[in-house]
Design goal:
0% strand, elongated, mainly alpha
């Protein structure tokens, strides 16, 4: 069993890939697959917002905070799902 702390060491992109794998797994409960898919979409939206990188310091700090929160939520979710 993998812990959320161990998963938290992965990049946000790696966690998004893991979420997509859970979402695509036909043996996973439907609600779990939906949550995994939702987290993956949230990641894609965040990436789109930061591409290209914003030159504004305040906006970068806000996006960085959102990245940290999303990474934590993904790690917690995946620790219970895989």
């Amino acid at each position: 069993m993998v812990t959320a702390q161990e998963l938290g060491g992965h990049s946000l992109t790696e966690l998004a890939v893991m979420c997509q794998r859970v979402a695509d797994d036909v043996t996973v409960h439907e609600l779990t697959a939906r949550e995994a898919s939702s987290l993956k979409r949230e990641w894609a939206t965040l990436i789109a917002r930061e591409t290209p990188p914003t030159p504004e310091f305040a906006e970068r700090k806000k996006i960085d905070a959102e990245r940290r929160k999303l990474r934590k939520r993904m790690a917690q979710f995946l620790a219970g799902a895989i």
